[in-house]
Every structure is written in C-alpha cells, then in structure tokens.
Amino acid sequence: MVTPLGTLDRTPPPFFRQGPSALTKLTFCSALAVFLMVADTRFKLTQPVRTLVATVLHPVERVLRMPVDAWNGAGDYVMGLQHALSSETAAREKLARQAERAARVEQLQAENQRLRDLLGLRPALSVRSQPAEVLYEASDPFSRKVVIDRGSAQGVALASPVIDEAGVLGQVTRVYPLSSEVTLLTDKDAAIPVLNTRTQSRSAAYGIATGSGLELRFMAGNADVQVGDLLHTSGVDGIYPPGIPVAKVVTVDRKVDTGFAKVMLAPTASPDGVRHVLVLEPLGLQMPPKPQQADDGKLPIKPAKKGGKK
Q1: What is the pTM of this model?
Q2: Which domain holds residue 105?
Q3: Which of 273, 268, 282 is nearest to 175 (CA)?
Q4: Are residues 286 and 123 in contact, defined by beta-carbon separation less than 8 angstroms?
Q5: What DSSP character marks residue 310?
Q6: How many helices (H) and strands (E) does the chain have?
Q7: Could you tell me if 199 and 236 lie in one domain?
Q8: Are 206 and 230 members of one domain?
C-alpha cells in the first residue's frame, strides 16, 4: 500500500530541532540572575520564599540530625563518665592525704601541748579574725594595693595581717570607717620577717619594684638557702602569727664579688584574682603590755618601806 506524499509528517525529529543558541541562553540566565539579586537586595522579594522553605525543611533537618546528635551525645557521655571517674579517684586520694595530714597535725599538737606543759610555757595565742571581700585594686600604678570591704566600724585595726587559704597576702596600711587599704607583699615598700622551715633561720623578705615577687636581702653568700625552701612567718614582729606560709625560694644567685646572695621568692598566695580574704588581729594586741620605764630610760625605783632599820 502506497502512502500519499501529502500525508507525510515533515516536522524534524526532536534531535534535529534547533532552539535558542547557547550564548542566548547564557545571556538570558545571567540577566535573570542579576535581576533577581538586585531585586532581592533592594526589595527583599525572596525573603518570604526563604522563610517558607526554611520552615518546611526544619523538621527534615531535625530528623536528619538525630543520628549525629545521638552520636555526639554518646561521646560526651562517655567522656563525662571518664572525667567523673578520674575526678572521684583524685578526690579519694586527696581525702586520704588530708586524713593522714590531719592525723599528723593532731599528733603534733598533742606533742606540742605536752612540751609546753613540761616547760611551763603559756599557751599559744588564738588570733581573732574576720572575713572580708576585695572590692578593687588601688589606682596607683606604681604600688600593689587592694581595698577590702571592712574598716574601723567592723573592728579592723591598723597593721592587721591579711591572708587567704594559701598564705599571707599583705597587711592593712590604711583604715577607713567602712573600708581598708591592704598593701600586698609584692609591693616595693612591703617587708615581712620570715622563718626558713628547713634550717629554722630567720630573715626578712622584701617586695621588689616589678611587683611580681619577693627577695631575701642581705643574705650572706654562704648562707644555707636552697631552691624549694619554704618560708613561713616567724612571729617575732608582733604582727603576723607564726607558722603562716609566705613564699618559696625559686632562685639563689651567689655573687662572689659582693659576698651576698640574691635570693628570689615566689609568694604562696597569689594576689591576682583573689576575691575573699581573712583579716587577722595583730598579734601585738593580744600580747601582755611591756613594762613601763622611767623617763631617763632606767627602771623605776621602788619606794623604801616604812618602819625599816635606822
């Protein structure tokens, strides 16, 4: 059967169809992109679309993130459990050391009391104290001083020692009605008598100009001082109670040419970042008064008893 030529489909197949050129498509798409960017920047045209898409996709994102969150949570749980176990072990070890130290302290206190009773010495003075809070540092950039929230109205006396849980911080140098100024040990004008716990030798520690530590001055070049020696308050000045940690020896420079040793110290109590302190009553206020002398420096002469021999 022969098909008439007029009935044949003369349209080209899809493969041979010719549309707009690639350059035309690129120009149109670029212009459309520029137009949409400008319109979105000036008129916020796509903001509602973005909001709608974000709202629709939010539950999907939450579902897809569940395995990731579960994995991260499991890892954090395992790490937290290990940290808790290690912290518990460290706390148990610290508690055991503190218990041993407390037992030794009780034993030493009992021995000290027996020795005092044996020698007939008076008991050690119990120093009165009160807590205080550091308000701010002094405005003088050339000194190391802080201001606390306790003053004469709360019973703070001049020259009262100030300590924290690590040791001596400084001394009250000015007292106001509701506040007090404390000069830190690292101040260049500060000084404190100390006792070397290893050698039982007394000396004096002074602040240095840099305000970062202390030093032992006028120490002989052959003095028995070693790195690591602990220095406590000696209690001979009538201000600081004995036995409070002050500093630790960090460097010893024995100068042969001068015959002295330069001994640098690091304070046990760090004044930077301290917030709560303890203000002690000066030791001299609890000591018995000194015997009064005559105006010429001699002891007063007792009057002769009446009715004596002629």
Answers
A1: 0.56
A2: 22-119
A3: 282
A4: no
A5: -
A6: 2, 12
A7: yes
A8: yes
Sign of CA dihedral 137, 183, 205, 124: negative
d(CA 293, CA 305): 21
Kindly give the confidence (pLDDT) of every residue in the chain, 310 residues in length, as a single tens digit, with 9 standing for 90 and above.
Answer: 555 655 655 665 555 556 677 888 889 899 988 888 887 788 777 778 778 888 888 888 888 888 888 888 888 888 888 899 989 989 988 888 888 888 888 888 888 777 777 766 556 557 788 999 999 888 777 788 999 999 999 999 999 999 988 889 999 999 999 999 999 998 988 999 999 999 999 999 999 887 778 999 888 888 889 999 999 998 888 888 888 999 999 999 887 677 788 899 999 988 787 888 999 998 877 666 666 644 444 545 454 444 444 4
Q: 3-class SS at 172?
A: strand
Q: Residue 306 falls within a domain, yes or no?
A: no
Mark whether 104 and 141 lie in a shared domain.
no
Domain tally for the chain? Answer: 2
Report the alpha-carbon distance of residue 267 to residue 192 in Å, rounded.
12
How far is 277 from 162, CA to CA, in rounded Å? 7
> Which of 94, 119, 144 finishes a domain?
119
Q: What residue has token string 């030791």? A: 283
Q: Which amino acid is at 276?
A: H
